[in-house]
Amino acid sequence: MKNQELQLLYIFDAIMTERSVTRAADRLAMTQPAVSNAISRMRQIWNDPVFVRKGRNIEPTSYALSLWDQVGGPMYALTNAVSATQFDPQTSKRKFRLAVTDVIVEMVWRPLIKLLEQEAPGVDIYAVPYTPEGTHDGLREANVDLAVGMLHHHDHSLRSTWLFESGYVLAMREDHPLAGRPITLEEFLEARHLLVTMSGDVHGYVDSYLDQKGQSRRIAATVNQFSIAPELLRETDLIAAVPELISQDCGFVNGLWMGELPFKVDPTSLYLIWHARHDRDPGVIWIRGHLERLLQERWHEIMTASPCSSR
């Protein structure tokens, strides 16, 4: 490969990572005109527009996405091979963006912040909204450093560590007409359901199970945070299938009756997810290790605690 082509790939990788000519120029210590000239050479040599303008942003073409899929990993490995990457928690000024739900924030954000204050006072950590597909794209496009959530399908660009799994229980107010006894499938399907959905999709994990059985339920309301669900359930006739993890939270279940679903649903697994480009990034490895430990410790505490409500 000619030196010119290797340099273009290096610039191409920076633009794909940053999704911005300005940020790519800063990353490469180049001027914006120099990066723009490099894009012109890419278009000429590769016979493709490579990047197209969309408002103030740029978007890669299908050819560019395909090319980055092939060279992104090797380029990152090559960069690591020729430059020593170091991370000192005590002096680092890094900022980490974690895609998480409000449940994960509730579980570990306080001990995580305390840990940063003690071990990495210059490190900042930002919680960004988690949605399954959007977060996976965010990891691939370098908009997110880590994510905690479900992983429906694996691909070579994403890495993951299994954290724990959680089944589902049925929640409703204590004086609900269906509370205090086993509920039938017919009663479940006829009830008005509350669904917590991060993506806004009115179709949850339980609905996927019902699809397989040729059944469907009525989703009467949705919210995009678990924290608002208890109040809605306590003040309405809505019922909800919620992760077992939440049913161990005394604050969540106060005033609610928790029971079993009228059918068996396989538990869902939660993963700590990152992009392959961060496999050898010592900063991401450091924060990843602490996050994994804190999540698993908190999970163990929750699942071994005394029950908060009768079943």
3D architecture notes:
By secondary structure, the protein is α/β, with parallel strands linked by helices. The chain is built from 12 helices and 12 strands. It has a 5-stranded mixed beta sheet with strand order 4-3-5-12-6, sandwiched between helices. It has a 3-stranded antiparallel beta sheet with strand order 10-7-11. Strand 1 and strand 2 form a beta hairpin. Helix 1 packs across helix 2 and helix 1 packs across helix 4. It is elongated and about 75 Å long. It starts with a helix and ends in a 7-residue tail after the last helix. The mean pLDDT is 87.
Labels describing this entry:
311 residues; alpha/beta; 3-stranded antiparallel beta sheet; 12 strands; 45% helix
Helix/strand layout:
Blueprint: H1 3-18, H2 21-28, H3 32-46, E1 51-54, E2 57-60, H4 62-82, E3 95-100, H5 102-119, E4 124-129, H6 132-140, E5 146-149, E6 158-166, E7 168-173, H7 185-190, E8 192-196, H8 205-212, E9 218-223, H9 229-235, E10 240-243, H10 244-247, H11 250-253, E11 256-259, E12 268-275, H12 282-304
Parallel strand pairs: 3-4, 3-5, 8-9
Antiparallel strand pairs: 1-2, 5-12, 6-12, 7-10, 7-11
In short:
With about 300 residues, the protein is α/β, with parallel strands linked by helices.
Regions with little confidence, pLDDT below 50 for 5+ residues: none
- How are the strands of the biggest sheet laid out side by side? 4-3-5-12-6
> Helix coverage percent of residues?
40-55%
Question: Which range does the strand content fall in?
Answer: 15-25%
